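Hi P.,

Sorry for the delay on this. The queue was packed all week, but I finally got your sequence through. Input first:
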Amino acid sequence: MEIIDLSLPIDDEAFEVHDLRIDRTLHKEGIEKLNRVIMTRTKEGAEKYADGKRIIHKEDLPDEEFLSLEMVYSSVHSGTHLDYTYHYGSKSEGKPSKTTEQIPLEWCYGSGVKIDLTYKNSEEIVTDKDIIKGLDRIKHELKPFDIVFLYTASDVKFGGPEYFSDYPGIDVSAIDFMLDQGVKIFGVDTMGIDRPYKFMMKDFQETNDPKFLWPAHFHGRKREFIHIERLGNLGVLPDKGFKVICFPVKIRKTGGAWARVVAIVE
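Then the structure:
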């Protein structure tokens, strides 16, 4: 059995469009922070702390080190993550949208299928015809609860601004085709499922037609689905015959949640 990591990190050194910061308290710094947190809970303790007194000294701890601590300030849409219907709008299929802690966990473990779309360029969209073509190539018929990965190789651009501007978008026809076969979750190795911002806005400004604005995301208001963004390493996967695990982190009332997505290849 081989476990293949399909996830990209939450990386404070990578280019991001949303603010992302990780505050790191190192082991030796942690001793001072521990004293500050403990002592400043009361006025008397705060005064003693200000006067230089300490409850715990470095000599009291093994190797003169406390525990490390990292505080992550990030959008839930950084790193590999699942998006659910609340992200798309307040309602889906005429009912209140669901947040990510409501994702059915049974949807998050299933048979995986990879569709090779590396021939698509960043100005194009992936349509139902592309999905059908890819399935025909690997001689596979989608079945309910298959987890479908759309492989574009865009993850190699992660870390730079081109990751956000050069990738093919997903057409609503492709989403509908997968949903019609009983698929609940599909994933992309791009930063999003809609076309890059520069193409969407160009088409919208030239036509004044709102259909060009985030059509794939807004389709989640009509039909319930989950999609995974920012996958990586899809190129090493076989086309089919593997299992996928993509359980989301349980964060209350959010439209997206981080996930460590892996494939299990027997």
